[in-house]
Specification:
It holds the Pfam family Anthrone_oxy. This is DUF1772-domain-containing protein. The chain is an all-alpha fold. The protein contains 5 helices and no strands. The chain has helices spanning about 10-45, 45-85, 90-105, 110-140, 145-190. Helix 2 packs parallel to helix 5, helix 3 packs antiparallel against helix 5 (about 145-190) and helix 4 (about 110-140) packs antiparallel against helix 5.
């Protein structure tokens, strides 16, 4: 005997739980990066700060968009699929709220490309150039003039890197806001 197909209400409940959980976790992750991680990074020496930011960036750029995509797919199922497959399960207002949740949750992708890509790129280049500068200093003995010039360049790089990481934390709040707004819309449609 084959198992019975899940009832629409079971699928709906699963989609609701998945969407709200994933969008809320992604929002919390983004908020944590800005409120907790960035201030700790700014306390680190610049080369270490850049390495830590790069590692966090590499992990975050895989995890948060994936969670957002899964949440948005669930919100779309709830807003579109459910509206047409099971119109008795939700109102037009609920369907619109789920669609708004999907749009807000997916909105982190264009937001990142429009507002954060430049900062991300500059931080990636700074980390790369910091590694190259350290390697070149190890290979040569510098006289006093070279040392002073290199110290000034390094001081500028540190100010730039710290400022960019701080600015990244501010920009990241926009993504967190989109995800949080999506979670609120999804929750409002569910309740």
């Amino acid at each position: 005997m084959s198992p019975a197909a899940p009832s629409p209400s079971t699928a709906v409940r699963l989609a609701q739980g998945t969407a709200i959980l994933l969008s809320s976790v992604a929002a919390g992750t983004s908020l944590s990066l800005s409120f907790f991680l960035v201030p700790r990074l700014l306390e680190s020496p610049t080369p270490l700060m850049l390495k830590q930011w790069i590692r966090t960036y590499a992990r975050g750029k895989r995890a948060v968009p994936l969670a957002s995509l899964a949440a948005a797919a669930s919100y779309l199922y709830l807003g579109l699929g459910n509206r047409y497959l099971h119109p008795h399960l939700l109102t037009l207002g609920q369907a619109r709220a789920y669609l708004a949740a999907a749009a807000l949750t997916l909105g982190i992708v264009p937001y990142t490309k429009l507002f954060m890509a430049g900062t991300n790129g500059r931080l990636l280049k700074l980390e790369e150039s910091a590694g190259l500068a350290a390697a070149s200093l190890e290979g040569k003995a510098a006289d006093a003039a070279d040392a002073a010039a290199e110290a000034e360049v390094e001081a500028q790089r540190e100010r730039s890197a710290k400022g960019l990481v701080d600015w990244w934390g501010v920009l990241n709040l926009g993504r967190a806001g989109l995800l949080l707004a999506g979670s609120v819309c999804g929750l409002a449609a569910t309740i």
